[in-house]
């Protein structure tokens, strides 16, 4: 089997000699920065991941549409298990950046562009992202894989059911569905949104709740986030639906990590990630039940 370096070297877009540098942070792909005599590019190596509902053809369609909408880097090349993107010279955001009110306002504008503008540029079949159905499918995968968490699945599915009931009705937009701080880049002039592995049609509340939960946005920031997104005051019904989706995003991330513990071959501490997210989910779900 060829190495990552051999795969990259064989891609027919390079001009002259290339330098390959691994990029840290990927937990569903192997990522590399490649420099040739003309350009710098990010190479993402990764096959479909059926247990996580990740389809590389869907990622490609979302990446192309997001670039056409002006919010993501250009696709330079794609092939089986390979996606190459233009390199954006800039800074990866951190959770503390997201919590800054001025930054958060700009991020909301970027999310609205994602939700509103990308569908006009999509071509071919595109995924739906239903967090609750994914959670139920994760439970089946964990049961079949004899996960060490099997004794907790019934309680987690009961939590899923309660959250789904509280979150309806759902709107429909094209969501990114993985709004970690590391998926935002600042080039000094504008923000970019990258990594479209989980993109698909979803309720906007999942992206908004995921953004808040992933980056520990405080309650006043959450209310500002919602008011900016919806351009209106937030009533108690919307607030509860939002909270339900936020907690669901934590449950989905927790079970994503549980599944990764038994299926991923990448060098990452998934067990530690599961424990971290389980604690956050349990705390958030307890607070939600008291609403």
TrEMBL record:
Keyword flag Transferase: yes
Q: What Pfam families is this protein classified in?
A: APH (PF01636)
One GO term in the molecular function aspect is: ethanolamine kinase activity
What is the recorded name of this protein?
Phosphotransferase
The record's keywords, sorted A to Z, are: Transferase
Q: Which residues form the Aminoglycoside phosphotransferase domain?
A: 20-243
Which InterPro entries does UniProt cross-reference here?
Answer: Aminoglycoside_PTrfase, Kinase-like_dom_sf
Enumerate the Gene Ontology biological process terms.
Answer: phosphatidylethanolamine biosynthetic process
- GO CC annotation terms, alphabetical: cytoplasm
Entry superkingdom:
Bacteria
Coiled-coil intervals, chain numbering: none
Q: Does the keyword Transferase apply?
A: yes
């Amino acid at each position: 089997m060829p190495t990552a370096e051999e795969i990259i070297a064989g891609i027919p877009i390079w001009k002259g000699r290339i330098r390959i540098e691994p990029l840290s942070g990927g937990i569903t792909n192997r990522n590399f920065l490649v420099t040739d005599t003309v350009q710098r590019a990010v190479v993402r190596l990764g096959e479909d991941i059926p247990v996580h509902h990740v389809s590389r053809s869907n990622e490609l369609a979302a990446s192309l549409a997001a670039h056409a909408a002006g919010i993501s880097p250009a696709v330079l090349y794609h092939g089986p298990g390979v996606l190459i993107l233009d390199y954006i010279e800039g800074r990866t955001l951190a959770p503390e950046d997201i919590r800054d009110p001025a930054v958060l306002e700009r991020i909301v504008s970027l999310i609205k562009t994602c939700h509103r503008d990308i569908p006009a540029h999509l071509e071919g079949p595109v995924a739906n992202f239903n967090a609750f159905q994914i959670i139920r499918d994760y439970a089946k995968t964990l049961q079949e894989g004899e996960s060490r968490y099997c004794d907790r699945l019934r309680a987690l599915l009961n939590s899923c059911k309660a959250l789904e009931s509280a979150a309806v009705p759902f709107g429909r937009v094209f969501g990114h569905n993985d709004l970690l701080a590391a998926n935002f880049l600042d080039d000094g002039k504008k923000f970019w949104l990258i990594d479209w592995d989980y993109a698909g049609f979803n309720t906007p509340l999942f992206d908004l709740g995921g953004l808040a939960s992933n980056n520990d946005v405080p309650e006043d920031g959450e209310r500002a986030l919602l008011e900016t997104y919806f351009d209106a005051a937030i009533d108690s019904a919307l607030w509860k639906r939002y909270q339900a989706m936020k907690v669901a995003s934590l449950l989905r991330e927790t079970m994503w990590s549980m599944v990764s513990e038994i299926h991923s071959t990448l060098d990452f501490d998934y067990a530690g990630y599961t424990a971290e997210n389980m604690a956050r989910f349990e705390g958030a779900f307890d607070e939600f039940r008291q609403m």
